[in-house]
Amino acid sequence: MKVNQLLRLYEQGERDFLAIDLMSLDLQQVTLIAVNFAAANLRGTNLSRSFLTKSNLRGASLNWANLTYAKLSQAQLVEADLTKANLTGAFMVQANLRNARLSGADLSYANLRGANLCGANLCGANLYLVNLLEATLDKVNLNWANLQEARLSGAKCRQISAREANFSGSFVKEVDFQGANLERANFSEARLTGSDLREANLGGANLAGARLQEVNLQGADLRGANLTGTCFESVTGWTEIVQEDDIFSLDWFQPRFAT
């Protein structure tokens, strides 16, 4: 279908474009609010600055698509393929991305506040300065992802896998990391105040200069973690951790305690 034909049908009130093929078309800055693009082929399509609020993109193919600064708030992207898609600055407040594929996608500066990303694959994705406040990310794959200076306060991140992910300088206050795999993740200078890290794997993680006030570390594994200059205050489960000889045997273990 050609762009002009699509827009003409939309203006006439048509909203059902199930499984439509719009591969590699130029749809930048178009308004397609509340349309049904379920199972649509949008591979490589240019949707930059387009309005897709409340649209249904369930199971759609959006890999390599350009969605920079697109409006996707409350959109349904369940099981959508967004591999290598460019979502820089996209507005995706309360969007549903459950089980979506976002490996290698660029979500820098995107607003995903309150979004549902349960089970999504964000392996190697760029989430620099992303807004994930109060988002749900249970069982998400964030291995090798870049979350530098990201905002995740109030997010649910139970049982996520974020091995070697970069959380440096991020705001992760009151985040639920229960059972998370954070092995060798970089949390240097991160703010983790009030976060729940029970049973989390922080083996080999970099927590240098991080703030861990009022966190729960019961059952957490910090073997080999870098705690140089880490700020501890009112930490639950600290007694269990300090008994681990292999942590204190490291020369660079120099935690500081807030006063």
From TrEMBL:
SUPFAM superfamilies: Pentapeptide repeat-like (SSF141571). Pfam families: Pentapeptide. Gene3D superfamilies: E3 ubiquitin-protein ligase SopA. InterPro entries: 5peptide_repeat, Pentapeptide-BTB/POZ_domain. PANTHER family: BTB_POZ DOMAIN-CONTAINING PROTEIN KCTD9. This is Secreted effector protein PipB2. It comes from Microcystis aeruginosa Sj. The lineage of its organism: Bacteria, Bacillati, Cyanobacteriota, Cyanophyceae, Oscillatoriophycideae.
